[in-house]
Specification:
The protein has one domain (5-352): Chorismate synthase AroC (Chorismate synthase, AroC fold, 4-Layer Sandwich), CATH 3.60.150. Helices cover 25% and strands 22% of the residues. The protein contains 7 helices and 19 strands.
Length: 353
Amino acid sequence: MPGNTFGNIFKLTTFGESHGKAIGGIIDGCPSGIKIDKKKINYELNRRKPGQSEIVSPRQEKDKVEILSGIYNKKTTGTPIGFIVYNKDTKSKDYKNIKNIYRPSHADFTYYKKYKIRDYRGGGRSSARETVCRVIAGSIAKQILNNINIYAYVSSINDIKIKNTYDKIKVKNIEKNIIRCPDKNVAIEMINLIKKIQKKGDTIGGVITCVIKNTPIGLGEPIFNKLHAELGKAMLSINAVKGFEYGSGFKCTKMKGSEHNDVYIKDNKTKTNYSGGIQGGISNGMDIYFNVAFKPVSTIKKTQYSLNKKNEKVKFKIKGRHDPCVLPRAVPIVEAMTALVILDYFLLNKIYK
């Protein structure tokens, strides 16, 4: 299946299915001599794994990474980094009743029509379980980037959103609650809403905001490989993502050119950053910030109607363990994909120097 590799120089290829024996990946193009802390990788995996709180999937996976190659004496060797994570808590029997049914808004229909076969257990390859591999590679990328700071947080759940802009939030508060929202009071509202929706057997979506600080000037390749275009591609490749906007985004449609142009006055430190740190597809050294929209998870516990393989209308109810809201676990995934893009373009930029 094409489409399993991401990146130009720092490349990640992933493999595995949700209910298969294991998932894993190979990182190619990693520079040598970089010290890698495995504890930091497992820390990121713990932020993504299921079963971490009452508002996420109760599936119990320890998600401990096993490094197979490319790292020796805690340092990268310059050769491909192979890694694997074994699936331990699969309950494939929960999916037997939908073996021949296309779940609404899932990849079931399109995968079957394209490949004439599909793994119905948890969605197989189309499952967000695959993002474990992205988080592992992203953690390694973060450690290589070192001084470039990447962080994401939940900025809204449905109609509940934080008031502060990205430059006014307290980053240290992001990990202080299970929703990963830096505003304590808003976080409580979000959690209560998710619990309410969860009891009804339904799901809910929201927005994750991501910020990149200390980005060097010059990252991005015009014309077709602009930095914001690559970030958009990376975010839209994440399961359940339906939208991406950077800088002023859709708000700029309500502004005039005289209002929207960036201003920086050094004397009194007044500045605007409508460009989101990217101009002409190239980083300008200012903060890069963007929003990622996540839909309500398609798997709900309510009775639904759909079609089966015989094209017959059927009534069914999905079993299994699923997230009422994917956003808390998606925060480290957004950070990981961001790190992969920034490192890849950082290495690509070295070609010119």
